Amino acid sequence: MTPDILIREDTGPIARLTLNTPQKLNALSMDMLAALQGAFDDIAATPDIRAVILSGAGKAFCAGHDLKEMTAARQSEDGGKAAFKTLFDRCAKMMLTIQKMPQPVIAQVHGIATAAGCQLVASCDLACAADDTRFGVNGVNIGLFCSTPMVALSRNIPRKQAFEMLTTGAFITAERARELGLINRVAAPDQLAAETEGLAETLAAKLGVAMKIGKQAFYEQLHMPIKQAYAYTGDVMVENMAYRDTEEGISAFLEKRPPDWSQ
After folding, report:
1. Which domains are assigned to the chain?
2. Contact 142/113 with Cβ under 8 angstroms?
3. How far apart are CA 58 and CA 152, in angstroms?
């Protein structure tokens, strides 16, 4: 029996997705992109799931796109252009889905996260990494500038540091990634899963509808002029205040008791 390339395990309100092609360093092949897209779409439609952890099997989180698959695509009459366009379009759709889905997604990173693998970390809402993890957008070293990974990376870390990574192809450490804002937390390898799960449990305990509306607003307002952002988020807060569970949460806080949320 062929093992699943993506494993999903639900534990209460937390879904864990594990990239499961360790022999390929969990490369983002067309099949892997399809599996991720399907899993994210399904989770997004499952309100009982409140948080998602994304990890990788084997010795690495994700080494980017499947270069052997890309090389094989070059044998077509157009030199692979149509296949490459499909690949990058599907990858972009999957990355955007992470930010559009209502649940926060946490990358649990170990080993290496390179090229589109680094893009995947940058696209997640939060990230925890083992202290010996290395991050890079190394395509320039083989003559392929990491243009699509650049989109997510440059929206996570300062401009000059992103450009240095993209043009030198050099790795950065987990601690440097945390300093730059690519990841949130660094843990010893044997503590990484517990650190990530603890963060997921904290998020999963929040009011789901508030997390949903807040996550959407977070990404929407980022690209607005400040005056428009305040007007938009003000409307979001008005909507949030109208929820029965928000009223209960405020009452519980004032009365110094746990909230009795309906969802």
Report:
1. 6-204 (3.90.226.10), 208-254 (1.10.12)
2. no
3. 25
Measured between alpha carbons, how far is 2 from 251 in angstroms, rounded to an integer?
A: 53
* Residue 193 confidence (pLDDT) above 80: yes
Q: What is the pLDDT of residue 171?
A: 98
CA–CA separation, 180 and 254 (whole Å): 38
Using one digit for the tens of pLDDT, what is the confidence trace for 149-183? 999 999 999 999 999 999 999 999 999 999 999 99
pLDDT digits (tens, 9 = 90+) for 34-74: 999 999 999 999 999 999 999 999 999 999 999 999 999 98
Round the average pLDDT of the chain to a whole number and report it: 96
Which strands sit side by side in the sheet containing 105-109, from one edge to the other? 6-11, 14-19, 51-56, 105-109, 126-130, 185-187
Give the single-character DSSP code of 125.
S
The gap from C-alpha 184 to its chain's centroid, in whole angstroms, comes to 12
**CB of 4 closer than 8 Å to CB of 22:** no
* DSSP states along 192-232: HHHHHHHHHHHHHTS-HHHHHHHHHHHHHHHTS-HHHHHHH
Average confidence (pLDDT) over 117-126: 98
DSSP for 236-259? HHHHHHTSHHHHHHHHHHHTTS--
157-196 exposure pattern, b = at least 16 Cβ within 10 A, e = fewer: beeebbeebbeebebbebebbbebebbbbbbeeeebbebb
| Class of residue 146 by CB neighbours under 10 A (exposed 0-12, middle 13-18, buried 19+) | buried
